[in-house]
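Reopening this ticket.

The earlier resolution said the output was attached, but the attachment link was broken on my side. Pasting everything inline this time so it's all in one place.
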Amino acid sequence: MARMLRCQFEGAIYHVMSRGVNRCRIFTCDADRLTFLNKLRESVETHDIKLYAYVLMPNHYHLLLMTPLGNLSRFMHQFGTSYTAYFNVRHRRCGALFGGRFKALLVEGDAYLLKLVRYLHLNPVQTKAMKEANPSERLDVLEKYQWSSHRSYGGWERRLEWISYAPLQGLLSERMGTKNLPAAYRRYVQTGLARNDQDLEKALKRSSKAVGSEAFCRDMEQQYQRLADEYGRGPDVAMRRIEQGIHPDRILRAAAQSYGLDALSDWQKQKGNREARDALIWLWTTESGLMGRDIGRRLGHKDGAVVSRRLRLLRSQQGENLGLWKNCRRIRQELSNVKA
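Inline output:
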């Protein structure tokens, strides 16, 4: 069966959801949840994702995000692969953790973005166990729930640096008539607890590919159809290659060739060619989906601390050292031109 195409473009907003294979638990303890959030933060920073909201449930999770670079698949591949590897090692299992591909619905901004943040955050009190609870009880459970961005929006805990609060603050300010985000957000959530959002419920049923007005969903359906016509009706080979990532050894050989180095040499000791190591670190991160710890070990370090510091520096200097970024683009192009 052909895989569903991903409609990816700069500035796209998505509601992302992924569930455990056979609905199994993807979190068994708080250590799993903390590791998941740490990996999510690192991936958000690496791929320049604007994350608006998240919620972790026992066997699935939701994200609401925007992709300034149009790179949803690369982001999700690195993030999902890294957490699965951790989970399998910790719990002595093997194989897939998530059931199939993640679901990603394109989202119309403004009103539907605001509605979806509330929808995500209300997940913990929309369970069967909470069905008979009154609004006051549900609100109390929601305020104490630690595994979502709800508490930081409501002012119960400090804001997270890797969550983008500004768009929702603007929307809430306009809707609620106040610039006090915690107060406006709390009132907005309480309204959602008191009665169902019928407009959002209709929007969620309107399309299998988008959340928004009829016009927006129709436009997104047409974009998907154009993608299907472009790639044909066979399996989506081009998109699959992006989601699977490029094997780290291929990137190592390509970087070595570009900089005139021996692919088998100890890159940690190539002290005279820091740019080559920076290019390798950047490409392993963005093209292979490797996390900092994996890269650090490949370069002979005990962990990923050195790599993480280097990545932060590289991200802050993307307008500098044009030679490095030109080489990265050339290596990426060469790799994409080679058949898998």
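Reporter confirms the inline version is readable. The chain has two domains: 12-231, 246-337. Strands lie at 12-19, 50-56, 60-67, 103-107, 210-211.
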